[in-house]
Design brief:
Elements: H1 10-21, E1 25-33, E2 36-40, E3 45-50, H2 52-57, E4 70-74, E5 81-87, E6 93-97, E7 105-110, E8 114-120, H3 127-140, E9 143-149, H4 158-168, E10 173-175, H5 185-188, E11 196-200, H6 207-215, E12 240-243, E13 249-252, H7 271-277, H8 294-300, H9 306-358
Parallel strand pairs: 3-5, 8-9, 8-11, 9-10, 11-13
Antiparallel strand pairs: 1-2, 1-4, 2-3, 4-5, 6-7, 12-13
Length: 359
Amino acid sequence: LSLADFGWNAVREGAFAVHAAAGLVPGRVVLEHNHVFRVRVADSEILAESAGRMKHRAEGRQALPVVGDWVAVRLDTVGTRSQIREVLPRTTWFSRKAAGRETEEQIVAANIDVVFIVFGLDIHVKSNAIERYLVLARRSGATPVIVLNKSDVVDDAGPMREDAEQAAAGAPVHVISARTAEPLSALEAYFAPGRTIALLGPSGVGKSSIVNRLIGNEVLPTGEVREWDSRGRHTTVHRQLVARARGGLVIDTPGMRELQLWDTDVVDAFDDIAALAAGCRFRDCLHDREPGCAVKAAMERGQLDDGRYASFIKLQAEQLDMEKRRDERALNEAKRSGKIGSKALKALQKERQKEGRES
């Protein structure tokens, strides 16, 4: 396989010209494990790590390489470990708030063309879960597609498909079974040479099984789902990009137990609410307690599902809270940088005063 099979094109080659002049080579990150990366270069895969100066100047983890990134690599000609010196500009990226208390962005994967948002039909698919993934997927710049897996375990997937289509707000919805011999032709249609497709979704929904079917090999491990609560284990523990012999690339990701918004616009997943909002009295209407709100009026008239409205308000409140926390963090960082700069200036002034007295 060539780099073109991994998505390399004339635009990326143009962006890489300055790095080529410095003796670096292009590559794409296909696997990350404990800060060590497996990178596909022209004719092979190599192990590489981020250069120290790159880590030093990074403003956060979002500036460091992730699976799917195109990077500039300094090949090691004597040892076994090369260095990633630069991350090329990303065309798309899927990010969330890092798990835990830390207010920091975590980029899940980069340079994705299509996102398969996968849910299992063995448990009830909640509309607000679909809406939450859609907000992040549409913000990423990739094309979202809803995939309802495990149709073999239900008698009639029709009602659940209808609910998903209502929550999907125009995104395609496909019902499949990765465990039967039924072809996955609906998903195959999204693949093309050099196109990257990522699978996202909770644990136990069959993402790795779908990837294995699409690849045509048991490339990724799969696990059983517990019978008592229909929950799956994290059989995928690392993000991994795999090239298909039939063309196209797939990124499998670990199941997400925690999916918090980062820099998003909730309206991205609520086209119907966005259309109604054009009739609000105030441009900055939050569609909650403001007078003259066309969205609330539509809900009260029965033109907007109250459950969908409640989901929108919840996600919007979460988005506003995250914006506040990001602003507070930026303010604290600015104060910290100011204190460091002030201390350095005072130290410099003392040194100069000392030199003056000695002379």
